[in-house]
Specification:
heterodimer; A: mainly alpha; ABC transporter involved in vitamin B12 uptake, BtuC; two-stranded antiparallel sheet; 15 helices; B: alpha/beta; Rossmann fold; 2 domains; six-stranded mixed β-sheet; four-stranded antiparallel β-sheet; globular
Chain lengths: 355, 237
């Protein structure tokens, strides 16, 4: 018994656990000190949490593209961050044109809808072209090959957009109706209108996608293809079509996420996909890559953690300018989760499944 | 005209010349079995018929029309379904969803419902487990589900790959009874088996495969009496 235990737990495992526990201890100590100091009123935590949910729901939408493509092709589509970037980038031109015509202020809902559709169409087109041109010819190649192609495609798209539209930051027009706060009735507390819109729109899309995957015949066929491509084909499922559908869904969600991102931060540039992309990828791994619900939860968790932890944890530890470390935090979280649960929050044991 | 006509096909598995000119005929309403040792090319033959593999030479005709250039989902739509070796049910989907996937290419809702009832009549066990995730079923139940799933395509020709593999003897009996019943209901069956004794007991005719070649072809009763078959596959000295 003890011998078996000792064989299972190697020196490396123990070392990793110590790192993990150390980080956890820092989180606990930091939070305790911050809360004890009472530096921030409870309102402030609520504001941060809502901001985190808004940010996290954008991550979740992007993460779905990573996780679904992984589920079906066992490949990380590193160009997905550029699929995300392309949508709001083209959306910017549509939004500016609508704004100059005064349409965006007169009909904000329809106007935003048009921008959203333009962005989703752009991202979807790019995602489908990527699949057709860059990935499909390599489907039988060793797994490293499409991975490198994806990184190449990512650079190609970034610098194509830079070449076509310049490297400057472009400011999204502001919609008058989305300025300010909605007061929650009976309290002094307000939610930024942009954040409210982002959360509502994202939740609608997440729920919609969940229902699509779980309830519709096409959605179930995507699950079947992701489990076993050959057998899915024997069922009469057109595997190529299922893969294209996956890229369409991933692209459309990424485009929509891009517009929501632009609502939150009101700017776009050719490099904007990098950080949200890599964080959404982190979120997908956190949730268990290949798992749709996991990607949603991972995204929300990461968004909330990112917005709360700098003040909550780092401030308490006496680290100056904690907000600067926000981006590093995502990856610290990733390390901790992977130490304790290598398959992610909802992931299955891949090794066990293959046996 | 035969329902299925396989004419001297050569199939490669990577660099391996797996099928070296195999010809098989299956008539409407028959049970035909392919027997042979492990690695003889039995599964390769089925996978070539299904379109997962493509023959380098030769032709495969279904009702006289060539199907060897088609992709798997197109071949299913023409009425050929397979219950694959090792069952390979969709572990994360439940029993009903697995059966729905079997009927993926079909549009006739009433027919699909009728076939679902038919599968549940053939395998009452599956009805009890209708909402259970397939990954948690027992081996025998998964085999029933794999056969049921193939039947959901309402095939004219059903390909069964090693349906007895890994099952307890009593379950093997039950599965072969069901195979007879499915055939009696009008479905033509091409059966691949290592358990030659069971396979020949249900089949009308049989082909014996050895390293990618057909070495023997006769009625099932004649094969059961054949000296070589008895020695090699029925375990007699």
């Amino acid at each position: 018994m003890l011998y078996r235990l000792r064989r299972k737990i190697s020196g490396t495992t123990v070392f990793m656990w110590i790192i993990g526990l150390g980080i956890l201890a820092m989180v606990v100590v930091g939070s305790a000190q911050t809360l004890a100091s009472g530096r921030y009123p409870s309102d402030q935590w609520l504001v941060l949490t809502i901001y985190g949910v808004a940010q996290g729901s954008v991550y979740a939408l992007i993460a779905l593209g990573y996780t679904m493509v992984y589920g079906i092709l066992r490949m990380i589509n590193f160009a997905h961050s550029e699929v995300f970037m392309s949508g709001p980038f083209i959306g910017y031109y549509v939004a500016t044109a609508l704004d100059e015509a005064g349409f965006l202020d007169r009909q904000p809902v329809i106007g935003l809808g048009i921008v959203l559709l333009a962005a989703m169409a752009t991202s979807t087109t790019i995602a489908v072209l990527l699949e057709r041109i860059a990935y499909r010819p390599l489907r039988r190649a060793p797994r490293l090959v499409p991975l490198i192609t994806a990184i190449g495609a990512s650079f190609f798209l970034q610098y194509t957009f830079r070449g076509l539209f310049g490297s400057g930051v472009k400011g999204y027009p502001e919609i008058d109706q989305l300025k300010g706060y909605w007061l929650i009735p009976g309290t002094q507390f307000g939610v930024l209108k942009t954040q409210g819109v982002v959360i509502v729109a994202a939740v609608i899309m997440l729920v919609g996608l969940y229902l699509f995957v779980q309830r519709t015949k096409t959605g179930k066929s995507l699950q079947a293809v992701s489990e076993d491509k050959d057998i899915a084909a024997l069922m009469g499922i057109d595997v190529d079509r299922a893969i294209v559908i996956t890229f369409i869904i991933g692209g459309a969600l990424a485009g929509a996420a891009g517009v929501l991102y632009a609502l939150l931060f009101r700017q776009v540039n050719f490099f904007m996909g990098f950080f949200p992309g890599i964080k959404a990828f982190t979120a997908a791994v956190l949730g268990g890559i290949g798992n749709v619900v996991g990607a949603m939860l991972g995204g929300l968790f990461l968004g909330i953690a990112e917005s709360l932890f700098p003040n909550l944890v780092l401030d308490g530890l006496g680290i100056p300018a904690p907000y600067q470390l926000k981006d590093a935090l995502a990856f610290i979280l990733l390390v901790v989760v992977l130490i304790f649960r290598p398959t992610g929050i909802l992931g299955e044991r891949l090794a066990a499944k293959k046996a | 005209m035969a329902l299925l006509e396989v004419n001297t096909i050569h199939t490669y598995y990577g660099a391996i010349h797996a099928l070296k000119g195999i010809s098989i005929q299956v008539e409407q309403g028959e049970i035909v079995t392919l027997i042979g040792a492990n690695g003889a090319g039995k599964s390769t033959t089925l996978n070539t018929i299904c379109g997962i593999l493509h023959p380098h030479q030769g032709s495969i005709l279904l009702d006289g029309e060539p199907i060897h250039g088609l992709r798997p989902h197109e071949i299913v739509a023409r009425g050929v379904a397979q219950a694959p070796e090792g069952r390979r049910v969709f572990g994360r989907l439940n029993v009903i969803e697995n059966l729905e996937m079997g009927a993926f290419a079909r549009k006739d809702k009433a027919g699909i419902r009728r076939d679902m009832e038919r599968v549940f009549t053939l395998f009452p066990r599956l009805k009890e487990r209708a909402k259970q995730v397939a990954g948690t079923l027992s081996g025998g139940e998964q085999q029933m589900l794999a056969i049921g799933r193939a039947l959901m395509a309402s095939p004219r020709l059903l390909l069964l790959d090693e349906p007895s593999m890994g099952l307890a003897p009593i379950l093997v009996e039950a599965i072969f009874d069901t195979i007879r019943e499915i055939n009696a209901q009008g479905t033509t069956i091409l059966l691949v088996e290592q358990n030659a004794l069971m396979a020949l007991s249900v089949a009308n005719r049989g082909y014996v495969l050895e390293t990618g070649n057909i070495v023997l072809h006769d009625s099932a009763s004649a094969l059961q009496k054949n000296e070589m078959v008895r020695k090699a596959y029925l375990g007699e000295e």
